[in-house]
């Protein structure tokens, strides 16, 4: 189990997992495009993930990590600065990686990564339908 910052080398692998195992609205902000993984969705996915490559000190104040299991990219976890004391996290996993404890393990690794940032709290928001 591991996580590596999303860069150009990992972006296409992350997109492949998203297309094969998730819906666009699970892995990126909404896009006006035909339903499913259309070309505009894939282009927007890459642009969205590229926009966060500068990390916590960059313009989006967000660092995204590819979640790895047995060397395979299976999803993404992120942390974003809300203010000097608070980070927000969120993640998605491909369907085949869900329910195996990978998300919990990724969150533990993220907490280790967040500790040196000086944040005193980490928050997450989700929908009521997301039981996990």
Write a structural description.
This protein has 132 residues and is of the alpha+beta class. The chain has four helices and five strands; from the N terminus they run βαααβββαβ. 33% of the residues lie in helices and 27% in strands. Strands 1-2-3-4-5 form a five-stranded mixed beta sheet, with helices on both faces. A hairpin with a 2-residue loop joins β2 (62-69) and β3 (72-83).
Which structural class matches the secondary elements? alpha+beta
Order of helices and strands: EHHHEEEHE
Q: Tell me, briefly, the overall form.
A: globular
Helical fraction: 25-40%
Strand-residue fraction?
A: 25-35%
- Major beta sheet summary: 5 strands, mixed
Strand order of the largest sheet: 1-2-3-4-5
Q: What would the average pLDDT be, to the nearest integer? A: 92
Alpha-carbon distance between the termini? 19 Å
CA gyration radius, whole angstroms: 14 Å
The number of helical segments is 4
Number of β-strand runs: 5
Low-confidence stretches: none
SSE order and pairing:
Layout: E1 2-5, H1 8-21, H2 24-27, H3 39-50, E2 62-69, E3 72-83, E4 86-93, H4 102-114, E5 121-124
Task: Write a compact overview of the structure shown.
This protein has 132 residues and is an alpha+beta fold. It has helices at residues 8-21, 24-27, 39-50, 102-114, and strands at residues 2-5, 62-69, 72-83, 86-93, 121-124. A 5-stranded mixed sheet has the order 1-2-3-4-5, sandwiched between helices.
């Amino acid at each position: 189990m591991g996580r590596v910052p999303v860069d150009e080398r990992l972006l296409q692998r992350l997109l492949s997992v998203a297309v094969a195992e998730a819906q666009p609205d699970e892995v990126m902000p909404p896009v006006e495009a035909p339903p499913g993984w259309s070309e505009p969705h894939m282009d927007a996915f890459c642009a969205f993930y590229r926009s966060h490559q500068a990390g916590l000190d960059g313009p989006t104040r967000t660092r995204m990590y590819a979640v790895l299991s047995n060397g395979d990219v299976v999803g993404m976890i992120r942390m974003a600065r809300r203010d000097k004391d608070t980070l927000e996290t969120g993640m998605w996993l491909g369907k085949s990686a869900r329910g195996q404890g990978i998300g919990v393990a990724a969150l533990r690794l993220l907490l280790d990564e967040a500790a040196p940032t000086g944040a005193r709290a980490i928050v997450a928001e989700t929908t009521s339908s997301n039981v996990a």
